[in-house]
């Protein structure tokens, strides 16, 4: 009985160890602010976060759910719960999904899935909503397989995991493809489509042009880290477009060799996945994985890239395909399951049971050995910080007399000295209980990917010509101290009254109080 209890505890304990190793810096107080990951003490619940009218709903319904949650729990706690849930659910889910006969093989799947370049790169990019879909995917696949077997009781958990995946549009699409392939049930597919309605509705109601800047295809194309190029990076589950979020270990000479070893093990284990899963299920998951992998390659293949650029410029909503590396998610799950079964099959061929356990242990540690710098918050890159007091002061002043706010310098992302110089999405839209106007363009190297917000374009024009922002009818202007940003033209602040002169933020009030007529 003691041995049986230890076996049951092995998977959650392993998942807990992985979680602690990755998120250790979050034991300190504060907020981890990294690229798209912005948590604030209490995020206001505003209509533009539920159904944004001027931009595409990239964070629907994620922002609304965060706003609701922070009415109950503080933002610092919500962030820790969300990040811990990603690691725990990913590890336990993969360990439970793999049809292994040995506990050791389940642990291999758990560590392999929770310690991938995909997870590391998206974590540093701050795309924690997408990673919740990543964590939900093995649980969703398990529920779909139960539905396929005729267990209608699995429809409820299937809907729940699909809803978790659908908090971002990309996660919702991957969930829909996975359920349609594995469950082979119109009811299950319909339920999965239903939980995608929030962001689909937001797309239908937005005033923004749903077509995208074709320059984004080159900007977001998958990238390689070594001589294997983009294909090698994607095969290793990496390949994100942002070089700043790629761990140094991915450029090591060991990375291609490690990818090759994992692929060899996966090839050795796929036969077992086909044999142990219901007939056709492994083939269907492989088809979904292949489709996602093909999408990831679209932007990296010169001839095909032009076709994708035409597609995103012409077809509304096709911009979802620009950052195609996101769609490697099903391939990552399939790879980890097959690696675990390959390791189990290799261990079973060794007569000495002790030597077999050594083989499983070596494969279990292989992902960590190939990417050791994911530990301790990716080498302490996920260090929490405290918001300067100016943010609370400005939030209080704006809340007393709400109105449109312009955040300057006009840029989507900033590098703050108080955030250790790390790049992060402007936090003001989530700090202030008012609509905050920022630049919706994205600069990737020398490529500037255009946005959709006409109001942001009007503000850019005013700043370029030095025209007073007060003439645009904004209620407030906030000037932030950021690293390396150009000075705000003095003439642009004409007609504005300084009401808070802080160390990190200055707040200006529009004394003209004109109605917004120029948008």
UniProtKB/TrEMBL annotation:
Keywords: Membrane, Transmembrane, Transmembrane helix. The chain crosses the membrane at residues 77-97, 126-147, 159-189, 251-270, 282-304, 324-343. Coiled coil: none annotated. This is 4-amino-4-deoxy-L-arabinose transferase.
């Amino acid at each position: 009985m003691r041995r049986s209890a230890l076996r049951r505890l092995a998977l959650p304990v392993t998942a807990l160890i992985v979680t602690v190793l990755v998120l250790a810096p979050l034991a300190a107080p504060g907020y981890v602010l990294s690229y798209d990951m912005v948590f604030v003490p209490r995020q206001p619940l505003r209509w533009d976060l539920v159904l944004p009218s001027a931009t595409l709903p990239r964070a629907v319904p994620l922002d609304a759910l965060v706003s609701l949650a922070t009415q109950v729990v503080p933002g610092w706690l919500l962030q820790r719960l969300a990040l811990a849930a990603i690691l725990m659910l990913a590890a336990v889910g993969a360990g439970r999904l793999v049809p292994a006969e040995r506990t050791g093989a389940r642990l291999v799947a758990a560590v392999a899935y929770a310690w991938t370049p995909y997870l590391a790169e998206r974590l540093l990019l701050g795309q924690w909503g997408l990673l919740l879909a990543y964590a939900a995917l093995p649980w969703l696949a398990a529920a779909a397989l139960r539905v396929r077997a005729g267990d209608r009781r699995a429809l409820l958990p299937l809907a729940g995991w699909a809803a978790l995946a659908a908090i971002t549009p990309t996660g919702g699409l991957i969930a829909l493809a996975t359920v349609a392939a594995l469950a082979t049930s119109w009811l299950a597919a319909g339920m999965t489509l239903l939980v995608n309605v929030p962001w689909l509705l937001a797309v239908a109601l937005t005033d923004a042009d749903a077509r995208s800047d074709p320059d984004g295809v080159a900007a977001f194309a998958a990238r390689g880290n070594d001589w294997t190029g983009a294909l090698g990076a994607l095969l290793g589950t990496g390949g994100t477009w942002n070089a700043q979020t790629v761990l140094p270990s991915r450029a090591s000479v060991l990375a291609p060799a490690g990818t090759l070893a994992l692929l060899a093990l996966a090839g050795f284990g796929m036969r077992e996945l086909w044999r142990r899963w219901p007939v056709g299920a492994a083939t269907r998951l492989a088809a979904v994985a292949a489709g996602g992998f093909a999408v990831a390659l679209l932007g990296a293949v010169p001839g095909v890239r032009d076709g994708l650029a035409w597609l995103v410029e012409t077809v509304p909503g096709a911009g979802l395909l620009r950052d195609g590396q996101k769609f490697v998610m099903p391939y990552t799950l399939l790879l980890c399951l097959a690696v675990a079964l390959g390791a189990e099959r290799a261990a079973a061929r060794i007569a000495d049971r002790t030597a077999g356990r050594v083989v499983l242990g070596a494969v279990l540690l292989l992902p960590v050995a190939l990417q050791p710098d994911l530990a301790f918050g990716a080498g302490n890159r996920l260090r929490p910080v405290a918001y300067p007091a100016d943010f609370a002061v400005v939030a209080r002043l704006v809340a007393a007399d709400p109105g449109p706010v312009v955040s300057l310098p006009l840029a989507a992302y900033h590098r703050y000295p108080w955030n250790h110089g790390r790049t992060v999405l402007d936090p003001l839209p989530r700090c202030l209980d008012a609509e905050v106007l920022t630049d919706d363009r994205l600069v990737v190297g020398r490529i500037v990917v255009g946005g959709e917000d006409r109001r942001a374009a009007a503000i850019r024009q005013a700043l370029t010509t030095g025209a007073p922002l007060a003439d645009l009818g904004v209620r407030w202007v906030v000037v932030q101290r950021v690293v390396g940003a150009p000075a705000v033209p003095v003439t642009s602040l004409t007609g504005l009254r300084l009401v808070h002169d802080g160390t990190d933020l200055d707040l200006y009030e529009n004394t003209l109080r004109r109605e917004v007529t120029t948008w």
